[in-house]
Amino acid sequence: MTSSLLTEVAAAVADGIAVADPALTGADPLVRPSERADFQSGAALALARRAGRAPAELADRVAEAVRTDLLAGVRVSGPGFLELTVAAPAVWRRVAARLARDDLGVPRAEAGRRVVIDYSAPNIAKELHVGHLRSTIIGDCLARVLGRLGDDVVRQNHLGDWGTQFGMLIQYLDEHPEAAWRHGDLAALDQLYREARARFDADEAFAGRSRSRVVALQSGDPETIAVWREIVAASEAAFRRLYDRLDVLLTPADSAGESFYNDRLAGVVDELTRAGVAVESDGAVVVLSATETGPDGAPVPLILRKRDGGYGYDTTDLATLRYRVGELCAGRVLYVVDARQALHFRLVVEAARRAGWLPGDVEVAHVSFGTVLGPDGRPFRTRAGDTVTLGSLLDAAVERARAVVAAKNPSLDPAAADRVAELTGIGAVKYAELSTSRTKDYTFDVGRMVSFTGNTGGYLQYAHARIAAILRRAEGEADPVVDPTTDLHPAERALGLALDAFGDTLADVAATLEPHRLCTYLYDTARAFTDFYEACPVLTAPEPSRGNRLALCRLTKATLREGLALLGIAAPERM
Ligand code: ARG
């Protein structure tokens, strides 16, 4: 089964073009969905010059030559567009064929390609903030969509679990045995971390002891390492709770934090130095960019070894990329990290290319995203000026969802209402995140997110639950039989074509790495369903319309359910 009517129509038009003018064999038929017919092709306009004909004349010839019973009509409009209308039986056949398949007619076509996705990556001993929320949700959606299309996805959680700040924290804990923190209590650790930082800045002697502690940590002093391990485990336990609540795919096995690369750093620096890619500068070892210059016009350095001999974020990321390509055998490496780190990743990729670690066919992409803004249009912070913790954000969304759900369906029993509130609140946050173009900043507005109207997660969940309710009324009946010779109402046509574009939409998300395209698609499909349901009675319709319409309901439900699942959002049967 080809993946869509669009592909089939495009193939038919390509054949027509080759018949109309053999010199144009192989040309792109440029078929797109259209408002005026089902599809439109601008190929005649694009190819006219090459064919030595006026666009309208070429369009006429192609229209003549397109021969397929897939199309009920090929019309030339305007300066030479082809307007293509799919034949009713072809639409019904597609509905039936997709419904009959577990994969909804979207095959796992990318088999074999390994894609490493770096996402979430919070920092140990600190609360996750909204920036990590974005990375976690966007990265998880991409992992699901690429995996669904057959990519071999390797998730990597590049935890910030290494560095000089841990010397400071461990030293502070050592000097304050009364400081209580429990396993999984990130807020307490975060607070102690702040105290340690304040002390470090204010007290020269403490700063000195902290620096020795860093040396102890990096040279593997058992006592220091033991405390560090405890801090990492306690933080990871807290992260895990949030991941579970958010229903993201990340597992402990996906954690490969900065510390994981520690014993590879010296080798990386050596290798780059020997290759002549890294140079000494003022006692440090750096890679000077060939393309990026700073405000002073000098090349921007990637710092591999600081003057004090220490390694930092830059070195770690180089070792990481080397590992992902060389050892994990990635064909595509994605970094889902906020836009402010764009220069960092450009420098890392440049250095890796110069080192010869990146074969030309390996794609590295920084999947960057903008800032989360508060209601005041400034980066989201609490009243006290702190960054807002993820847990409190989710609580606020679920709280709001509880009220909306209760108003909508007061008859749900309390346990079900709780469950639905949690799924709706979390779904709302995720959907709000995914439905805006990721490169833009977006405003965190719980009221708007947790609404059942407009382009929201709740609207889609509710649309799905409503179809579930319709189908429950036909429960126990045999599977609907689709009769392709039945009339096709315009609303059925619109819905059938929308459903058919599911696979193309997923391919588009995989190519552009933009989840909002899937959200827009699902929203449009849910609206097409609403139009259909208003125009076409289902359960009370006579056969064969009833069977055809039930099939449309089932396929819509399955598509919304899977689409939401690929966004990482639950689709309850009842709401
Ligand atoms: N821990 C970093 C931060 O919170 C993000 C790490 C992103 N991944 C990477 N390979 N650098 O900013």
Notes on the structure:
This protein has 575 residues and is α/β, with parallel strands linked by helices. Helices cover 52% and strands 12% of the residues. It has helices at 5-20, 43-51, 55-65, 88-99, 130-148, 164-175, 186-202, 204-218, 222-246, 265-274, 313-326, 342-355, 390-408, 414-435, 446-449, 457-472, 490-500, 502-512, 516-535, 545-567; strands spanning 31-33, 39-41, 71-77, 81-86, 114-118, 152-156, 279-281, 284-293, 299-305, 332-338, 363-369, 372-373, 442-443. The strands form four sheets. Strands 1-2-4-3 form a four-stranded antiparallel β-sheet. Strand 3 and strand 4 (81-86) form a beta hairpin. The two termini are 35 Å apart. 43% of the residues are buried. It binds arginine. Arginine (ARG) binds next to helix 11 and strand 10.
List the helices and strands and how they pair.
Elements lengths: L4 H16 L10 E3 L5 E3 L1 H9 L3 H11 L5 E7 L3 E6 L1 H12 L14 E5 L11 H19 L3 E5 L7 H12 L10 H17 L1 H15 L3 H25 L18 H10 L4 E3 L2 E10 L5 E7 L7 H14 L5 E7 L3 H14 L7 E7 L2 E2 L16 H19 L5 H22 L6 E2 L2 H4 L7 H16 L17 H11 L1 H11 L3 H20 L9 H23 L8
Parallel strand pairs: 5-6, 5-10, 10-11, 12-13
Antiparallel strand pairs: 1-2, 2-4, 3-4, 7-8, 8-9
Summarize the structure.
This protein has 575 residues and is of the alpha/beta class.
**Uncertain segments of ≥5 residues (pLDDT<50)?**
none
Bound molecules: arginine
Principal-axes shape call:
globular
Order of strands, widest sheet = 1-2-4-3
Number of helices, where a helix is a run of at least 4 consecutive DSSP H or I residues: 20
Q: Please bin the fraction of helical residues.
A: 40-55%
Radius of gyration: 28 Å
Number of strands: 13
Give the integer mean of the pLDDT values: 93
Report the major sheet: 4 strands, antiparallel
What is the terminal-to-terminal distance? 35 Å
Strand content: 5-15%
* Class computed from helices, strands and strand pairing: alpha/beta
